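Before we proceed, please read the two lines closing this message. Report back on whether the structure tokens fit the sequence:
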Amino acid sequence: MTDENKALELLKTKIKNENLIKHCLASCAVMKALAKRLGGDEKQWGMAGLIHDIDVELTQGRIQDHTKEAEIILKENGFSQEIIEAVKMHNPAAWNFTSQNPFHIALRCGETVTGLIIASALVCPDKKLSSVKVSSVLKRMKDKRFAAGADRNVIAQAENLGLNMEEFISICLKAMQDIAGQLGL
């Protein structure tokens, strides 16, 4: 499958939680921006970001199962092997393997940082992404209690892509700000 709208329709048949769908939309935007910066395929990377959590509700968040159902769903729906592998490798715990492929690293750290950025927006008085500054996200990155679910070790993998944290956060924040209306932020 290569059409983003059809992929979004498929995602919505598997995911009912609106916030999870927004997370996937944010991940799509982040992945497109990272692909642009790193010379990846923007369409392919964006698609992986969009559908990376397609099986979260099916697997009920069980980390050891997450992405195993996704592999089946994506194969059945004609997604490319590259996208399927990226989706699988964003959760190395299910496969007992951590890929160092830049596409896979970008998806792991890119989708993870969306939670930190959204949490940073939600503590702003207006709760808007437009109010979030790179410096405040970097500061909150150091406070492991803030948005505790956003694994800082995973986010730090951006450095394996040749990006320092400031540049990585800047790219991701800007991508999310560009679709703030879709995210309700």
